[in-house]
Fold this sequence. Notes:
The chain has 713 residues and is of the alpha+beta class. Strand 5 and strand 6 form a beta hairpin. The chain has five domains: 4-108, Agglutinin, subunit A; 115-270; 343-489, Sandwich (Tick-borne Encephalitis virus Glycoprotein, domain 1), CATH 2.60.98; 492-625; 626-711. Helix 7 (670-686) packs antiparallel against helix 8 (693-711). Strands 14, 16, 17, 18, 21 and 22 form a six-stranded mixed sheet that branches. Strands 36, 37, 40, 41, 42 and 46 form a six-stranded antiparallel sheet that branches.
Amino acid sequence: MSDGLNPGENLGINGLLTSRNGQHTLEMQGDGNLVLYRPGHLALWATNTDGRTVAQAIMQGDGNFVLYGPGGEYVWDTGTDGHPGSWLIIQDDGNVVIYDPSGNPTWATNTQGMENVRLLVIRARHDATAAQVTDAACQQAIMVGPNSLFGYWAATSQQYFDFTGSTMLPWVDISLGDDVGRNAVAALAIAAARALGPPDPVAGMDGILVLPFPGIRQIPNPNPGPGQPGTIPQGLDGGATTVGGVGTAVVPINTSDFTFLCHEVGHVLGFNHTFGLLNNGSDWNGSAPPLIESYEYGSPYDLMSSATFGGRWQGSPPHYNASPTFRLPAIAGWTGSLWAGPNVSRALLHFQQPSAMAGTVLDRNYPAPGARVYERVWAPDQSGRPTVLVLHPPQEPANGLGRVYVEYRPARGWDAGLGLTGPQLDRAGAVVHTVTELPNTDPKVWYRGSVPTGSIDRDLAVETTALVVTAHEDPAGNFVDIEVTVGSRPWVEVDQFDYWVRDSGVELPERSERTPCFDLVTVHSIYTVTSSSYRATATGLGGTGAPGGAVVLAWSVDGLPLTAASGQVAVSGSIQPIDYDIANDVLTLTSLAGQRVSAAVRATVSDGAASATSWSTEFWADGTRTWMSEEDRKKVAACKRRFDRWMRTRIPWLRIPIPDPPPLETLVNPALEIERWKQSVRLQFERLPGLTEADRVSVAELVELQVVAVQGR
């Protein structure tokens, strides 16, 4: 039984490594997932490659640990190539590490140093007529599986929290008095639990979770009168408190959602609220006066702001909303709401439990003016990779004041409720928090803004600092490249994508041509329609964390502004206009069938105080597609070879044959790029001394025929 892999060694399907103390195993499962297990066969870490076809996990000689499919196709890796001679070991502390020959770690699962939290779960029924929630439902919701309370905190803490030794007691019955506050309910439930004893079930526990049921009771109507009911519902209080020095969360089952459950247990684990946007989260009286506004609960990206996630719907505008939650799969028999998420922010996790982030933190100093910090930050589910960039100010105090956190939050896993579009605050993307001091309090983790996925505005000016964070996202949603500078200048770029050319169905008469070698070939033609889309991004504009500060985008084609969502625009050099459509800030241009046209596309972005315009990006439509038969293509190729040999005979020093056109499948805008290729070849040969005008005409003819030959049908 081995605890490691040397260079060149591998794990096949169902193979495993076992730590020397026998407590942890790394298993290459048949479903394609490589999983690290702790005692009790509870998963600590995984490659999340289940459902993929995997044949082996190999510790390569170059230092990279890779999962390959049966045909040698890549599936997953640690990204540690460049360290030849490295080896992998599963340690007694539960950490899987790759060490280079000098003994320096190059990668790790960072599953060592876990914090064991023994939680006592007390289910307390105050209405004997209410049917108890089944043990199976309670186990699944609280203790067992990836979608449970324990599963949430293990996942969001990067497997730092371990709930081994936690206990769920049998149901107990309690009798409520007038006080249904969390302290009173918790005291009644704990007393009923102790009455089950001895031994004392609270002894040795690190925290308590009380689940009162039902979450509502009926009480006499304090304002009876004609037409009024005799009783009215009264909800039981929920929240975190301390009973006998033990952190306790009180969460009524059927009137609480999963987010609230995780939030209140978060307090038991030692997490404080996050701050940020001015919001109504502390106004427990709703619309009743007085109006209460606070910066507490102000982060749209942190579980510990779940009162409103920064939402503001009362008081003077602006008003804004965030709802970063999603519904978990149904649990049979569970009566609580299953709205769940989001993750705890990496900022709060690092600030309050730095050990949980060991090995996944990029610590950098504030950049100096004129310098920059450039790093890649990975999503929370990308195990073993850096998931937060921490920027430290000069002379940072011990309490972390002035620290800036940058993390990446795609809409999946426990963040599946994050939005992809729309006006809500909780858009997936790069997120920035700072450590900020409030008067007479300890420093707090404070939300400063985000760079949402797909947004025009790609940077954020970090309030309370001079820093600007610019984000460029991986299209697959696994990481974001972060650039941090002091200040920025307005800049707009336009990217072209989704280019296509389609046949219109209208074919033109065939025409016969002769190559310079006097071979007769037939050229076929058809009218085409060309379409291309354009996306703009801006930096140095907008870039504030305040809601409602979005930039404004305006498109123009050949200098003419596009003022409607769709229509036609005239372009120079064409009698007919081209069609345009603007949706979600993306411009799409489409030519008419047979239309040969070129047009300059520009984007202007403004934020009310400044604006910038991009360089022009060209839209090109050739209007026709030509092709020839396979036999004729061979004639053109043979002629080109003969012509190249003949030219070298005429001009012995000439070593430049007529080049071949680039493969069409490699081009972003084939029509435009082929036209530029033709022009460059003509210019190349026009400058050669010793060529006659007839030679140059022959070169031009061959260039045109080559393009026809490579297009095919």
